[in-house]
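Dig into my protein:

:::
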Amino acid sequence: MMAALEHRIRMRSPAKLNLYLEITGKRPDGYHELRMLNTGLDLADIVNVEISPDRNIQILCEAPGVPLGPDNLCARAAEVFFRAFPQTRTGLRITIEKRIPVAGGLGGGSSNAAAALFALSRLCKPELGTEDLIRLGAQVGADVPFFLFRSPAWVSGIGDVLSDAPPLPAYTFLIVRQDFGVSTAWAFAQYDLTKRDNRDNLNNSKNIKIAPQDFISRNDLEAVAATYFPRITQAKTELLEAGAIGAMMTGSGPTVFGVFSDRMSAVRACELVGRSLKREMVLSQGLEGPLLIEC
């Protein structure tokens, strides 16, 4: 094991919302081309990365549904890192304190993986910049590069092409946590590219005026998921009836969020929708700037 000045790093690992998600094509390697507008959230997990004396990668997490073996995205991220920098290979103990719903479309696993990559770049000292980390993150998963960038951001390609989006208004997001999960791989497999329309709300995206009608408008995976899980549509309807100025599923679902112009409106809607749907509700604000913070 190479010497390091630090042996443990504790990272804040935030959730994200897709405010726009369009599938624009499918590549020969099976990856889907995407256009997205993403924002980070103040809802976050905590990821603790610690160098251990053996050469194993150990994942610890008490939350149900989180894989603890090599299929965990943190473990995959560590293997990607060590393949790129074999001289740094060491044992790791990665502990994940979950606050973000598992398989909810909020990017929790990808955020955790990004936190692991960032921590390893600090612990093992290869002096990686943001662009280098993003290149590594793209090998782990399509959502990982965003968490290594900044918020809000336009995201395209297979998640590896990022640019800054204009600051978002100070909206409050009301998030409906469903009691079931949706596999991202399943959702993309169900999506039929021949049926998508050709609207492109992100033409000249850097100059677009940010308003609810511009971005709370499209998630190509929503129709797929809602066909099998009608509670997604029910949650959207309840949020809109409670005063949301926009509502949409995020990612591959099943999490649905409503956008409110002020926190008081969101609090009132939380009480109404929570009683009606009998689901846990989370109030959250968007983040600006770097997403991964040592804590």
Q: What stands out?
A: The mean pLDDT is 89. The two ends are 25 Å apart (CA to CA). The first strand starts at residue 8 and ends at 26. Residues 174 and 283 are 5 Å apart (CA to CA).
